[in-house]
Amino acid sequence: xxxxxxxxxxxxxxxxxxxxxxxxxxxxxxxxxxxxxxxxxxxxxxxxxxxxxxxxxxxxxxxxxxxxxxxxxxxxxxxxxxxxxxxxxxxxxxxxxxxxxxxxxxxxxxxxxxxxxxxxxxxxxxxxxxxxxxxxxxxxxxxxxxxxxxxxxxxxxxxxxxxxxxxxxxxxxxxxxxxxxxxxxxxxxxxxxxxxxxxxxxxxxxxxxxxxxxxxxxxxxxxxxxxxxxxxxxxxxxxxxxxxxxxxxxxxxxxxxxxxxxxxxxxxxxxxxxxxxxxxxxxxxxxxxxxxxxxxxxxxxxxxxxxxxxxxxxxxxxxxxxxxxxxxxxxxxxxxxxxxxxxxxxxxxxxxxxxxxxxxxxxxxxxxxxxxxxxxxxxxxxxxxxxxxxxxxxxxxxxxxxxxxxxxxxxxxxxxxxxxxxxxxxxxxxxxxxxxxxxxxxxxxxxxxxxxxxxxxxxxxxxxxxxxxxxxxxxxxxxxxxxxxxxxxxxxxxxxxxxxxxxxxxxxxxxxxxxxxxxxxxxxxxxxxxxxxxxxxxxxxxxxxxxxxxxxxxxxxxxxxxxxxxxxxxxxxxxxxxxxxxxxxxxxxxxxxxxxxxxxxxxxxxxxxxxxxxxxxxxxxxxxxxxxxxxxxxxxxxxxxxxxxxxxxxxxxxxxxxxxxxxxxxxxxxxxxxxxxxxxxxxxxxxxxxxxxxxxxxxxxxxxxxxxxxxxxxxxxxxxxxxxxxxxxxxxxxxxxxxxxxxxxxxxxxxxx
Length: 753
Ligand SMILES: Cc1cc2nc3c(=O)[nH]c(=O)nc-3n(C[C@H](O)[C@H](O)[C@H](O)COP(=O)(O)O)c2cc1C
Hints:
Layout: E1 2-3, E2 16-18, H1 23-34, E3 39-42, H2 44-55, H3 63-76, E4 84-88, E5 93-97, H4 100-107, H5 117-123, E6 127-131, H6 135-146, E7 151-155, H7 179-190, E8 195-199, H8 208-213, E9 220-223, H9 228-240, E10 245-248, E11 254-258, H10 286-297, H11 304-310, H12 324-342, E12 350-353, H13 356-359, H14 394-405, E13 416-420, E14 425-430, H15 432-435, H16 444-463, E15 466-472, E16 481-490, H17 524-532, E17 539-544, H18 547-566, H19 568-577, E18 578-579, H20 582-588, E19 592-593, H21 601-609, H22 613-622, H23 630-637, E20 641-647, H24 652-671, E21 675-678, H25 681-691, H26 699-712, E22 723-731, H27 745-748, E23 749-751
Parallel strand pairs: 3-5, 6-7, 6-9, 7-8, 9-10, 13-23, 18-19
Antiparallel strand pairs: 1-8, 2-4, 4-5, 10-11, 11-12, 13-14, 14-16, 15-16, 17-20, 20-22, 21-22
Helix pairs in contact: 2-3, 2-4, 6-7, 6-12, 10-21, 11-22, 14-16, 16-24, 18-19, 18-23, 18-26, 25-26
GO biological process, one term: cyclic threonylcarbamoyladenosine biosynthetic process
Protein name: THIF-type NAD/FAD binding fold domain-containing protein
Domain THIF-type NAD/FAD binding fold: 115-323
């Protein structure tokens, strides 16, 4: 700790105070004055003239009259011996100033009566502590300029870097100098009489008490540090000592006021933080800090540009952005409110915004989310199918359909409507209201889900001894009627001879597992078993396992995830398909429960930032958003193998068949302790962009997508001869944290009377 009180001066931080009445000091003044290398600033006559004006504001003195008064003033006082001299070693300047009281009076005269003399007197007794001197510097300077306190305790251990020079008032000559020293010197140049106490090591557990209480308990603590453990520590201690805390966050002018002086039981950070162990916060990376910081700042309320930037931390930027305008605004608002609080006005605890974008709006492009399709065409059921030979009763039918519905579907939209007609035939209809999305290009994603559901139905019927006849209708992508199932007959015994019968046991355990465990390869038997499910000559199942190939694929998939979110419909689908909390997932029983994404805190926070379409519109405008590629990278590089299923045809039947093949692989892998996750978005977008003119991407985006497709075809389906239908990864991830819900079967099954 350093202080500029007599005897404890550090000349590299504080000026040397020289009293001309003191013989030693006078000798030093004379030495310095006779040293030709020292610059002398002696404006004492003009300061005295200001003092005379300040003491006689009522008399309109002319220049000559004032000159006369100054002469009179120095008639009895030797000008050189008047006031004090200060030697600033870092500038090599000797300055002659008025004595303390007069200096303060003249320096702050223009505060009157925005700050009354009485208030100024009161403020002179106040002690303010500022921790963290990036934003804190502007608070400190504003408070020093206004002189809204009598003592400032400053703490920071950091030194100035070039990348600080977009917001910290300093120059290149100060690079490598402690931020604390820069602030202290600046303040000493404004007012060498202002008492400064410096904590050069920053604030820690071992000196926090000193910082808050030594030489008197602080009247206000301004927290602008960026270590979360210290933020918490400061608040806990401030509560003990009943010190109010203020913090500016330089985004949308966010200002937090926590009045522990009058509300000692108030929860820290207004209770936004919940229960946290400060120990766990000691060595966070910048990306982790972002996630944690979001708990405090809130996510929805950040500016769109801040949200976009936070998603780039650890990708295209190293830390979150701060602007001089935001920092200066913070300095101004903290010092404004601090002054009111210190003079005893009733400043209330809370979070406030001085949002210049809101106060002075500018026209911006709106980013419209297209409306949801709300109509469903009538179903045209076939009339030429023979009646069922066996008629399951209502309960049995519900059980069969429930098993079919355990099938996977893109975004868990469950795009199925089942209709049981009067002749005992069960029809599968595409519910386009549920499935309409960027990825469900021509209903291809839904067709895969239907293939999987029909496979489940076949297996459960076989287990119940029911023989079925499946009639596939979908001849064109526009057809809503997908398939009809006749129940031919029922025997008492399960139909064990039905192909792959044993997979029925996997229906209820099958799931998408998005965990990224450490990598373990499949053995030969596992690989062969998976490939054996694709013996159909119209389909090919390829796999990659080499890390360099996986890494190349990760780049393609990451790039395509970014493209998906750039697309208006793609973003809308994303925002609508995620169920952001347990309750939402439970109530809707569809969509992707955020818990099934197996994200860590940082990733979850990043995901939440995407809820604001303005974030992505900003990325799109500036072709950014590389943070969006991170999650897929981990998905792919942690997989045992990636598989691509391709087919000869791009047709509804091809997709239905692909769905069936996949479901068998999925059931088999899950039954054998192997985890499965589809990775499909890129394939659906490739088809849309390469097969349609009106795809909704810009030319630049299309170009990027075409390039990514070319890279893709260097890895899989070389030469692009087949139609890529579905891609998935397998690994050994154990049990997923949670399982996805399904809608109540009764809502999906209609009985025709
Ligand atoms: C056609 C299709 C595409 C899918 N694409 C993805 C994907 O790209 N990424 C992913 O994590 N899950 C994907 N899934 C998995 C679904 O999100 C998942 O099946 C659904 O949420 C239900 O969860 P469950 O599989 O655990 O029952 C896809 C599923 C289907 C049928």
